[in-house]
Design brief:
The protein has 437 residues and is an alpha/beta fold. Helices cover 30% and strands 24% of the residues. It starts with 7 loop residues before the first helix and ends with a helix. The structure holds 5'-O-[hydroxy(phenylacetyl)phosphoryl]adenosine.
Length: 437
Amino acid sequence: MNYQYWHPKMETLPRPELEAWQLARLKDMITYALRTPFYKERLTRVGIRGAEDIKSLDDIKRIPFTTKHDLREAFPYGMLSVPLEDVIRLHASSGTTGTPTTIYFNRQDIGRWSGFVARCIYGTGCNRTDVFQNMISYGLFTGGLGFHAGGEEIGMLVIPSGSGNTTRQFKLMQDFGTTVVHATPSFLLHVESRMKEEGVSRDSISLKRAFAGAEPYSEDTRRRIEELLHIDVYNSYGLSEMSGPGVAFECQAKNGLHLWEDGYIAEIVDPETLEPVPEGEIGELVLTILCREATPILRYRTRDLSGFYPDPCPCGRTHRRLRRITGRTDDMLIINGVNLFPSQIEEVIMGIREVGNNYLIVVEKDGSLDRLTVKTEVGPDIFMDDARPLNALREKIRKTLQALITINPRVELHESGSLPVSEGKAKRVQDNRSKDV
Ligand code: DLL
């Protein structure tokens, strides 16, 4: 494989130099952080009054963790570290579960962020001859403008199509010869189902690659999208608190996501004790941004569960690789006392060929017990009026799930295209238990 780097020097920087860079940038971030009311109070409390109080990377452990709650408390300007007139953009989380969290960027911050996204895109084999259709929401969500700027930096033709409206997406792909798309994995699966329904032939589009992220998905889902659409799919990880996409991305080796360590310091901690886990083990990812002056965020508890691969990547990049994020500490379901991550269910059902492209997990109360129902669509080869294959499929899903998760779920099969599709991140779990009491 001929691996290509957007920023060869930084992407292959020897570890000692990379760590020296991180220390210098961490000191810069401390200087900026001390200009915010929030961190001034937090850092002085632990005796950090200036960059000179950070002497080694290990000193990061002296810095208190930052949580989503802290960001909300600091809303709107408590974490802004530059004069407002230097800020050129903000992004915000949707705020559906409370006060939104807001991140500010100065001009250099936007430039650096685009550079990281460009690295991600270029590392998958794209170049300026590609036509890139960005099928994800624009606006306050970081996925749209973040990838847009990265694509432009490389010099690709970027089509800001946004999410939704599959008919128009197909038309754009056909008219302009789109070679690469960006979307959530659930939207890519939806696109594939709609392609069949609308009779769009694979030969009428020139698609080669997709970047898929913003929500968890399994290796089986990646394989399914790749096989159905005949494309390469690359996993893309990021979060608004760390500017959005461009934090970690798969290279062409497609085995783990390189976390750009010149832009972020990553720690993996035990979510209960908050102590570091042994190298290579899974825990909660904690991130410190090194590449944003206007809103420095230190030791942010992402709630995402991951770990680092211990071995180097064949691509030659020196930045460590994260394992696929399979869940969050706060999305674990406890069903009749059994701990279960939605990703475990996805792994089973997306591995069954006859299952369609969409599913939903419903949890309810049944008397004093919890009841788990897994609703899946069926694939195009299964007909809803033919009871025998339907019963056989239902039983196959039930048995496979029960063997893996030790819970006996109810399985409902639904016609292709009948389960709800979200234009943004898929809502895979409906937990109705609190409504039932
Ligand atoms: O989802 C930023 C983004 C945009 C990433 C486009 C990739 C592509 P938020 O809306 O703040 O930001 O959501 C961040 O989504 O903490 C994870 O729980 C989840 N997430 C994002 N990417 C992945 C992924 C954007 N590849 C939250 N795998 C994160 C698993 C992901 N989970």
